[in-house]
Amino acid sequence: MWQPWGTDMAVPKLNSNTRERRFGWLLLALWCAAILFYSLWDGWIWEWHAEGYDGASQHFDLDLLDLRWERSADGAMSYPSTNNLHNIVYICFAVFTMAWVGLLFGAGWARQGVMATIGFPFVATLVTLTPSDHLYPIQIVYDVVHLAGIAAGAYFFWKERPVLRRSLAGVAVTWGFFLLSRVLCEPWPYWAEARNAYFSVNNINEMPFYFFGLEYAAVAALNLAVHAGIIALRRKLPGPRARVLTPLLFYGGMCGLLKSLGFIDPPDLSGSSFG
């Protein structure tokens, strides 16, 4: 029976390729360090949206479950205590996870998934390059997450041929993370108020519309269409370097187009004057 992810969805034994396995261990160590940071660092994107990076909760503490929100009589939300555990269900973190799984275990579905979703960390990196985005440690950790996914994706493009149908499982994983973020990071019932927790596809930009998590279908369709174009063009390219650069050029061009059309509008979080 046809399977969209091929026949290797089950995670195999450790990768027999020593170099890839070492790369995978490195990414896994960074992955664990990122989770530890997210667990201990207070302050999250709703607070940044309201107060910039100068909010009162920008600090470390040892309380992992201290996220609390309050609503005033006029409907305004405030967060007397916050944490960053929600970043574990960040889509670029899903790409990061598939990256070390693909390297450490040689899992084909994960490797294909990273190639298909490399656009998420790459575009996120392009739109957070300004110095003001790096005034606080949280953005540095985001950079590590993004760059790890980009590095692994570039390596996979270098080493193997992307296959569209085998990338579907990886795209589905990112959709699952998006739906999970809606459930976990918005007051229940999560569908009652659109964007109640200011959580979006990539933590830097709100979706142009809201439909109970199904709005991600438009993102998945666009992502797969671009990936199909990359695969078609890749067959005509002469060498591995061109095969690595082509997807980055595609997604760079897409980022510029979406920004020019107003579909990507990252907020200025450099100070408490933002609101």
Count of helical stretches: 9
Number of strands: 2
Q: Give the N-terminus to C-terminus distance in angstroms.
A: 53 Å
Could you describe the largest sheet, including whether it forms a barrel? 2 strands, antiparallel
Tell me the fraction of residues in β-strands, as a range: under 5%
Q: How confident is the prediction overall: mean pLDDT?
A: 78
Structural class: mainly alpha
Helix-strand pattern:
HHEEHHHHHHH
Helix content: 40-55%
State the strand order across the main sheet. 1-2
Shape by Cα distribution: globular
Number of domains: 1
Measured on Cα atoms, how large is the radius of gyration?
A: 19 Å
Can you characterise this structure?
The protein has helices spanning 18-40, 45-51, 91-105, 108-117, 119-126, 137-159, 168-184, 216-234, 240-260, and strands spanning 68-71, 77-81. The chain has one domain. It is mainly alpha-helical and 275 residues long. The chain has a two-stranded antiparallel ribbon with strand order 1-2.
Features:
single chain, 275 residues, mainly alpha, 9 helices, 2 strands, 52% helix, disordered N terminus, disordered C terminus
Structure, briefly:
The protein has 275 residues and is mainly alpha-helical. 52% of the residues lie in helices and 3% in strands. The chain has one domain.
SSE diagram, text form:
Elements: H1 18-40, H2 45-51, E1 68-71, E2 77-81, H3 91-105, H4 108-117, H5 119-126, H6 137-159, H7 168-184, H8 216-234, H9 240-260
Antiparallel strand pairs: 1-2
